[in-house]
Amino acid sequence: KVIMVLHIxxxxxxxxxxxKAIAELSRHNILLFNQSVLLKGVNDKLxxxxxxxxxxxxxxxxxxxxxxxxxxxxSAHFEVSDKKALALYQQxxxxxxxxxxxxxxxxIAGEKSKLPIF
Length: 118
What we know:
The chain is an alpha/beta fold. It is built from three helices and five strands, in the order E-H-E-H-E-H-E-E. The N and C termini lie far apart (30 Å).
């Protein structure tokens, strides 16, 4: 089985050209997962994340991970605080069924896998 992980942070990234390509991948039985990064000013609102999950599912993409931002130089203006992220994630859990809920995670250098936040 072929599995592909996509990196889509906002529902608007899935335009008609991308929908066609995604449909073609699905037609070939390629299993599609998505990982997003929680970004201040881009997708840090409840309705934005709900719409992203709905759009992913409509396009046969599993909303798999919602990453906290890696603390790298030049990215601080996109950082969402842990407190806000946890509150937002709790709201998301209350609004979405389990299959539409990505796992909130953080990557830490040296760790073997992503660490769940919630």
